[in-house]
Amino acid sequence: MTTRPTHSATPWLLAAPTIVLLIALFAGPVLILIRTSFYQSAGGADFYRPGTWSLSAYSELLGERFGRGIVAFTVVLGVTVAALSVAIGYPLALFIHSLPKRAKALALGAVILPKLTNVFVVLYGVNLLLGSTGPVNRVLLALGLTSEPLLLTHNLFGVLVAETYLIMPYAVLVLVPALDRIDPSLIAAARGLGAGPWTAFRRVTLPLSLPGVAVAGQLCLIWALGAFVGPLLLGGPEQTTLAVKVQKDGMGYGDWPRAATTAVLSLVTVAVCVALYSWPARALRRLGGASA
Amino acid sequence: MLNCAFKPVWLLGRLLGGLTLLALVAPFVCAVWMSFAPGELLEPPTGEWSVRWYREFFGSVKWTRALRTSAEVAALSVAGALVGGLGLAVAVTRFHFRGRYILSSAVLLPMFVPAVVLAMGLLPLVMLAGLQGRAYSLAAAHCLVSLPVVFLLLRNALAQADPELERAARGLGARPWTAFRRVTLPLIAPAILAGAVIAFILSVNEFTFAVFLGTPGARTLPAALWPEARDKDTPLLAAASCVTVLFTLAGMWVTAHLLRRL
């Protein structure tokens, strides 16, 4: 039963359901997706022209300004939402981390609450808050910052708010345990040696939490690059991300080669961004490790 | 501990933290409030409250059927994720075999791929197999999403459960399965419960796969709500969402109840 090398079939039998699922529903679809992206588009009732090989979907998508714009918008939105999520999530995590046990559980519950409901509640609520008669506009009007209600939804601002709402809880859920893992006696020691609270935070807590920040940033980036529901429901046509385009081409127009190409492009985008992210992530981890 | 110069900063931090939490909860509170609106408009009820939209939800076959589909898909996907996740977790923590590292990282891969990409890959597969709109094709897709989480939870729990205990039970004459069921299973029961709850929540609220793999006849609640959210903004959406929350809580309770017997 322990970890002795074994040649028995038992572990493989135990792992079999997962292996079957991964091959049939992960490896298979990704391969099918890649194959589909090389078909020729067919008009009318067919989803694609069987037996053809063509690069036309790729050249169409990357050749036109519109397609390249979608890639750029997806990346900019993803990076911004990830940065916002970590920037807002870190102080919130710090606050939750400082709470006594019971209040902490309650606060974490509040963070998870949007995840217990379907996305529509969140988006619907955001829609209401940002609407022309919503509280945000009322406050702005009452303060005299604007003379007319601002249009805050169905544009970039609405999408940013909605996606940050959807992704920020993940950052908090990663950051709170990362902060909890830091040995409190280190901070006490820093204070005992004469550091003020701010210095203790800057020199002890912050560096030690940076590896957690690196992880949170990566997860947020991956999920934000796949942004789908926010742009779909709270964005206008200008806020089309790759994911929204896949849905429109695949389900709306029934043009599978184009949808598959967009999906492959989205996969490549995520891979490139994660690869590039490993550079700042390593720097963050090194900062955390060097001061430990 | 706090010196005078730092106190305002500390208070400000508390205030900001509290406000951020409030902002996180606000859309949800809004939605609950809206769901009791008497009229068609997107305006929160001030004077009059009504359960009109709840009555409409439960009175229409379209919504109750979507709710039932959601329940079927969720139950199937929770069962699948538990069987798959537990099997793999036991295999990689209790056996030393070639390929266990590859397997433990391969199972995490679906987390790093946008849902739309997988859904678009699954669409031709599911359509060719004639399984579109079947509860189990969607449940299998949801399994794929919850497997990484369930696997990580169970692997950590199994790594903390001392294998020597199981060996002691074996030494006292228990067969492998009995030893696992009577010793290890109770030790990892909390992780199994947590995994089941997370898999349930993920499945009930999952939107992307539901849109791609559902058919007009068989849709989970989020997919059925989508046209409603896109075209009209009646408080029905809020009421349906509140029903989902209650449904999620009920599902969590049922899962906890079923798994308490472990």
Q: What is the rounded Rg of chain B?
A: 23 Å
Structural class of chain B: mainly alpha
Please state the structural category of chain A.
Answer: mainly alpha
Rounded to an integer in angstroms, the radius of gyration calculated over CA atoms of chain A is 24 Å
Helix content of chain A: over 70%
SS element count, helices of chain A: 12
* Mean pLDDT figure of chain B: 83
DSSP helix fraction of chain B: over 70%
Largest sheet of chain A: none
The largest sheet of chain B is: none
What fraction of the residues of chain A are assigned to beta strands by DSSP?
Answer: under 5%
Biggest interface and which pair forms it?
Answer: A-B, 87 and 93 residues
Principal-axes shape call of chain A: globular
Distance between the termini of chain A: 38 Å
Mean pLDDT of chain A: 84
Q: Termini of chain B, distance in Å?
A: 48 Å
Subcellular location (chain A): Cell membrane
Membrane topology (chain A): Multi-pass membrane protein
InterPro entries (chain A): MetI-like, MetI-like_sf
Protein name (chain A): ABC transporter permease
Q: Keywords for this structure?
A:
heterodimer; A: 292 residues; mainly alpha; globular; B: 262 residues; 11 helices; 75% helix; ABC transporter permease (chain A)
Report a brief summary of the structure.
The complex is a heterodimer of chains A (292) and B (262). Chain A is mostly helical and 292 residues long.
